[in-house]
Amino acid sequence: MSEDNKLHQAIGPGQMAFYAAGSMLGAGIYGLIGQAAGLSGNAIWLSFMVALVAALLTGLSYASLGSRYPKAGGTAYILERAFKSPRTGFVVGLMLLASATIGIPTLSLVFARNLSDMFGISDSLIPAIAIVYLLALGGIIFRGIRESVWVNTACCIIEATGLLIVIATGISFWGSVDYMEAPPVASPALGLDPLVIAVMSSTVLTFFAFVGFEDTLNLAEECRDPQRTLPRGIIAAMAIVAVLYICVAITAVSVVPWQDLADSKSPLTDVIRVAAPHIPPKLFSTIALFSITNTVLVNYVTASRLLYGMAHQGLLPRILGEVHIGRRTPHIAVFVLFVMFLPAAIFGTISQLATAATLLLLTVFILMNVSLVILQKRKGEAKGKFEVPAAVPMGGAVVCVILIIAR
């Protein structure tokens, strides 16, 4: 590959950590707290700890795979290599692209809807706002990976600030409740402690608060020293996000009874309303816009690199792997994705696609964990600078199977 057709290597460990954390910190956490509290009561913090361990197994597998095979379009490349089947990489790559083609414009409509609600804009303009929004983000991505990471970092800081405000205003309430209190269970299965049942049922939800680390794999070719940058970024991001989530969970049930959180449409807004009534509720509506923007930006970048990587593997037309000489970004892939987003942004409606997306993601996680086991056992495969025992990906695969069954 010529230098002119290579992506710009501009991402260091710190930037990668922000990128991964920004991908994990989404608007979903603002509603997830209430649902999880309804299942685990005051023990919601314990649910996040168990979810961290469960997610970390797959996160470490991705860190090891990224260290071994730093390729854009990493998922498709690794699956093709592990199963020695271009068809496997192609099919899973298309599944991920299909998910992005539906999910990204859907989130753009959510952004447009929230913006119109905040400023009283006519509903008829929502599709137009969504298109302009996607065009603006596409422009940032075309401009360069450095600019995309800057925007990602800014959004990540704003998202984290919202959670830190919740913690800061409610920390004086800490210690006011029993943090091992769980909802009563009528007939405990297999004689298990009700606390164990509550935490495990809630973990099925809280696990997905840590999803997003997988997006880093597609930026491997834009990292400086990717064999070290990817693992460090993923692990640092998961640690940062875990601390935030656990502290927010403790704060939420300390300020507002878990029963009320479970019934709330905006649980963290209710926490602020009780702990710091002087803070305007619109603050969190604004933060939600940045959360959505970060999610769309990260997914858009990831999808464009997946197209680029699959084109270089010969799984898609080569033109999708072209890199702009001046900007060193996959401009054709970025533009093609924008065109693909338009129908859903113009004619679509805001709908809940989480179940299908969740099953797809868990299936990919299982395949990636199995791929690492296969590649570790195969003679002649290159070693990375971050290796994990085979028990890690095996455990990650088992956890994902359990989550699919539990759902």
How do the helices and strands line up, and which of them pair or pack?
Blueprint: H1 13-24, H2 28-40, H3 44-68, H4 74-83, H5 86-119, H6 126-143, H7 145-170, H8 194-206, H9 226-255, H10 258-263, H11 267-275, H12 282-312, H13 331-347, H14 354-377, H15 391-406
Helix pairs in contact: 1-7, 1-9, 1-12, 2-8, 3-8, 3-9, 3-14, 3-15, 4-5, 4-14, 5-6, 5-12, 5-13, 5-14, 6-7, 6-13, 7-9, 7-11, 7-12, 14-15
Can you offer a commentary on this structure?
This protein is mainly alpha-helical and 407 residues long. It has a single domain, classed as Up-down Bundle (Amino acid/polyamine transporter I). The chain contains 15 helices and no strands. Helix 1 crosses helix 12 and helix 6 packs across helix 7. The radius of gyration is 21 Å and the shape is globular.
CATH class: Mainly Alpha
Number of domains: 1
Which of globular, elongated, flat, extended, rod-shaped describes the shape?
globular
- CATH level-four homologous superfamily name: Amino acid/polyamine transporter I
CATH structural architecture? Up-down Bundle
- Secondary-structure element string: HHHHHHHHHHHHHHH
> How many strand elements?
0
> Which runs of at least 5 residues are low in confidence (pLDDT < 50)?
350-354
